[in-house]
Amino acid sequence: xxxxxxxxxxxxxxxxxxxxxxxxxxxxxxxxxxxxxxxxxxxxxxxxxxxxxxxxxxxxxxxxxxxxxxxxxxxxxxxxxxxxxxxxxxxxxxxxxxxxxxxxxxxxxxxxxxxxxxxxxxxxxxxxxxxxxxxxxxxxxxxxxxxxxxxxxxxxxxxxxxxxxxxxxxxxxxxxxxxxxxxxxxxxxxxxxxxxxxxxxxxxxxxxxxxxxxxxxxxxxxxxxxxxxxxxxxxxxxxxxxxx
Amino acid sequence: xxxxxxxxxxxxxxxxxxxxxxxxxxxxxxxxxxxxxxxxxxxxxxxxxxxxxxxxxxxxxxxxxxxxxxxxxxxxxxxxxxxxxxxxxxxxxxxxxxxxxxxxxxxxxxxxxxxxxxxxxxxxxxxxxxxxxxxxxxxxxxxxxxxxxxxxxxxxxxxxxxxxxxxxxxxxxxxxxxxxxxxxxxxxxxxxxxxxxxxxxxxxxxxxxxxxxxxxxxxxxxxxxxxxxxxxxxxxxxxxxxxxxxxxxxxxxxxxxxxxxxxxxxxxxxx
Lengths: 244, 271
What we know:
The complex is a heterodimer. By secondary structure, chain A is an alpha/beta fold. Chain A is built from nine helices and ten strands. The relative contact order of chain B is 0.14. Chain B is mostly helical. Chain B has one domain. Helices cover 87% and strands 0% of the residues of chain B. Chain B has helices at 3-45, 51-61, 66-90, 97-135, 138-144, 149-186, 192-202, 205-231, 236-270. The A-B interface holds A 51, 54, 56, 79-84, 86, 88, 90-92, 94-97, 107-108, 110-111 and B 48, 132-133, 136-138, 140-141, 143-148.
């Protein structure tokens, strides 16, 4: 495997909140075009892990490399530049309440002096077409269903054509049909743009659809790693409980 | 030691501890607000500037607050005139009514009441909005998109509050004086020209200038406190209510404290 294909790397990552050790010696790599699913029970440190990756939470120890750059070494300006190359889909979609869908998408292109108004409009339309929501362009987030919000959140994450996308519980709070639609959308995005994705979830169906590789977290540690098939056939009782 | 005394000692220790804790948390909060102010000034001077968002916030904070401030100002002038008339009439000093009301409104009542109304409307709004943005991860969403949320959200709102409150106070003072004119004419017949002649006969630059300057500080206090409370909100949806509530309480209290200091400074210079 070529070194340049590594899109994210986590080495010996530790994070505690007081006496509560949330992440213990986490290690993993993700390659170009790969979907890595991080599975775990609620409170196992999945969201902390993804927030450490993007620099929203500072780890106690360890190193995080995103697109070849050490996140902890970066100054704020450099970190902001790096963040523009990474898409992030929040658990709650985190759409801006006071802005329309179009404004939500345009907002992440602010300061882009290289793009004209027409180019931005085209990018917005393309991003919404990718998630099948062109008709919602002028709607406010309050007028959208949970599934539509997630799709708009995904469209927003795709606006800057990121090399890496981080998904924080993309199917939480959705019905099984919409969850499947979102999972398939994640897969479509991977195929269309050849992006690397880290998908944090406790939804085994989402993992089945999207994962090229999986890590299951237990007590802040990467307990087991492998493909969906390998893990589902694992003899470990605790691991098998996820697949029942 | 008898059990009764032991329990009394425990009670005293407990209350001492809770006072110490409260004092400690007060000083911690004061330090955090100071640091928040420091960050505000740092981000304020550093480009890029968020002019469009500032104009939007100035519209929301200023223009949208005008009807409430205008109504309050009108009632303030009217009521103050009606209430003061009998006392002045006792001394045969009814002709002083316009001047007395004008000085009271311009120097003290106008700025303080308008600032309190502003703290209630704008402070609670900003506190709740920012707390809600925090809870729904909208602030984090800006952060991960490489946008500086402090500059976009906090700096624009604080600047809007700082610059809009003095304008609202000037408008409220003018409307309050008009209310006073109506109040005077409820039981008398004073022409518009004569009323305002009496008003401006007594009003001096020394009345208007310090009163306007202090409203800049009131506006800044309301903006920075409500932003601080909202931006640092936690405890989920419960935190939204708490942030809005404490933004108003802390903002109003700060207005009174600042007013007390402003009065002392003004009186020092007027001697």
